[in-house]
Write a structure and sequence with these properties.
Family: Belongs to the ATP-dependent AMP-binding enzyme family.
Radius of gyration: 23 Å
Number of strands: 26
CATH class of one domain: Alpha Beta
Keywords: ATP-binding, Ligase, Nucleotide-binding
CATH superfamily of one domain: ANL, C-terminal domain
Protein name: Acetyl-CoA synthetase
Pfam family, one: AMP-binding
CATH topology of one domain: GMP Synthetase, Chain A, domain 3
InterPro entries: AMP-bd_C, AMP-bd_C_sf, AMP-binding_CS, AMP-dep_synth/lig_dom, ANL_N_sf, MACS_put, Mitochondrial_ACSM
Length: about 525
């Protein structure tokens, strides 16, 4: 029986975390054996496909690693990666890990303020970007004293020209599983975004959580693609790195804006067998008549970030001929709960069962494990290889994330007698929109400096397409006219200076924000007041 197979997998699972552990060796060097094994198919803007092998990746990443060393960059230094899905993104990560540096992925839609905050917070000494990113840096470079080098793949300080004379020989430094490799910034659910620092073991920790929703990945002829940006943990560690670890080819494509027709054609043309499709992408694909007519060859589809529900699961079976498996995780501790139709029935509304290797429980306010059927906080027991090392330079915040040996996710759920975990809600105010987890704190901090705004609260409101839309509830300063021009200025300011995916699609004006007696904004009241307004 399927349930018995799941129980046997959990009971028999053992982690294999070697004492020497370097991500560049695990996702590149182990396959760079002269066989010309295909690592990546990069689809360029003009439709031309560039085939990139593991040997190519090793050759070029060694050159870039030696360039970094010649620039005085070394072990423990932070290197920002402000690029879309392209081979240079991967090469920068590989080169950083080869020399023991720490890579910092950055979303290309970030505006100047968001970039400046993250680069300053981690004290990045170098940044690899493209022409668009270099243009943003011109306005903030003077405020980043630690940033010594900016390499542009499109020109200027041209990365390709600079690495050409460098040696293509480099042996990865010896790193262990707990040596730092990667900083991924959270969405800033409470206050400013925090840098989640991960060790070289993080990929090994992700593997069961990728293999389970993708039906015992890898299988022969598997090829993986996601529209999710590689700057996020979902694109980088749910797709790119696990695929390369297993020697599976990844399709890379810069999709500036998700186009459902094009996405279906791309998956059909490149015979994509495995896809991570966020719920918003699935809802947009659902608007395309008869997706099956595109000739898809999908073997597995995983989705995470929002609950799909019975109707979407039924659509997925009709459109793709398979069951979409949901999964759950956070930047700090990812892919710990998952569905797998090949192991157990997928239950609508449930996000799955604990992934083998991870101990998951529901805790009460006192930190005690609750009985089955009781609502509480999803928690993961430490130590766990997928778990972060801590927040960058935030020991107090790191300590607050734990209760004893349990990492507290802050998400509320119920676990039943069969181990199914059903998501209930969040005990913070994070907004889930179009697959992004958006923290209101960063947007509020930014808008508070707007010359027309006296006070602001950012909330998420129900949205049929995006799950939630960002709404800014604004108290204008005295004498300010609250009109459509101000709405447009607020939206444009957030989109251009902070990040495009953070801009408020809805702006409401009020005379005062509702507050508790202690001065805390009553967001629940704001959500109730504006939820029915389009």
């Amino acid at each position: 029986m399927k349930g018995d197979a799941y129980a046997a997998l959990r009971a028999g699972f053992r982690w294999n975390i070697p004492a020497r552990c370097n991500l560049a060796e695990e996702v590149c060097d182990r396959w760079a054996d002269g066989s010309r094994r295909l690592a990546m198919m990069q689809v360029l803007a003009d439709g031309v496909t560039e085939l990139i092998g593991y040997d190519d990746l090793r050759h070029r990443s060694c050159k870039l690693a030696n360039l970094f060393l010649a620039m005085g960059i070394g072990r423990g230094d932070r290197i920002g990666v402000l690029l879309p899905q392209c081979q240079e993104t991967l090469l920068t990560h590989l080169a950083a890990w080869r020399i023991g540096a720490i890579s910092v992925p950055l979303f290309t839609l970030f505006g100047e303020e968001a970039l400046a905050y993250r680069l300053r917070d981690c004290a990045a000494v170098a940044l690899v970007t493209d022409g668009v990113g270099a243009g943003k840096l011109r306005f903030i470079r003077d405020h980043l004293p630690a940033l010594r080098h900016v390499l542009d793949i499109d020109g200027g300080a041209d990365l390709h020209k600079l690495i050409e004379p460098a040696s293509d020989r480099h042996d990865c430094v010896a790193t262990g599983p707990d040596d730092p490799a990667l900083i991924i910034y959270t969405s800033g659910t409470t206050g400013s975004p925090k840098g989640a620092l991960h060790g070289h073991r993080v990929l090994r920790g992700h593997l069961p959580g990728v293999e389970m929703p993708h039906e015992f990945f890898p299988q022969p002829e598997d090829t993986f693609w996601t529209p999710a940006d590689w700057a996020w943990i979902g694109g980088l560690l749910d797709v790119l790195l696990p695929s390369l670890y297993h020697g599976v080819t990844v399709v890379a494509h810069r999709m500036a804006k998700f186009d459902p027709d094009y996405a279906l054609r791309l998956m059909a043309h490149y015979r994509v067998r495995n896809a991570f499709l966020p719920p918003t992408a699935l809802r947009m694909l659902r608007q395309v008549p008869n997706p099956a007519s595109f000739g898809l060859d999908l073997r597995s589809v995983g989705s995470g970030g929002e609950s799909l529900g019975a109707e979407m699961l039924d659509w997925g079976r009709a459109a793709f001929g398979l069951t979409i498996n949901e999964f759950y995780g956070q930047t700090e501790c990812n892919l710990t709960i998952s569905s797998c139709a090949g192991l157990f029935p997928v239950k609508p509304g449930a996000i799955g069962k604990p992934v083998p290797g991870h101990e998951v429980a529901i805790l009460g306010p006192d930190g005690a494990v609750l009985p089955r059927g009781a609502e509480g906080t999803i928690a993961i027991r430490a130590p766990d290889p997928v778990m972060f090392l801590g927040y960058w330079n935030r020991p107090e915040a790191t300590a607050a994330k734990f209760h004893g040996d349990w990492l507290l996710t802050g998400d509320q759920a119920v676990m039943d007698e069969e181990d199914y975990v059903t998501f209930v809600g969040r005990d913070d105010d994070v907004i889930t929109s179009a697959g992004y987890r958006i923290g209101p704190g960063e947007i509020e901090d930014f808008l508070q400096s707007h010359p027309a705004i006296a006070a602001v609260a950012v909330i998420g409101l129900p949205d049929a397409l995006r799950t939630e839309r960002v709404c800014a509830v604004v108290v204008p300063k005295p004498g300010i006219v609250a009109d459509q021009a101000l709405v447009s200025d607020i939206q444009r300011s957030v989109a251009t200076r902070l990040a495009g995916h953070l801009y408020p699609r809805q702006v409401e004006f009020v005379d005062a924000l509702p507050q508790t007696t202690t001065g805390k904004i009553m967001r629940g009241e704001l959500r109730r007041r504006f939820a029915t307004k389009d």
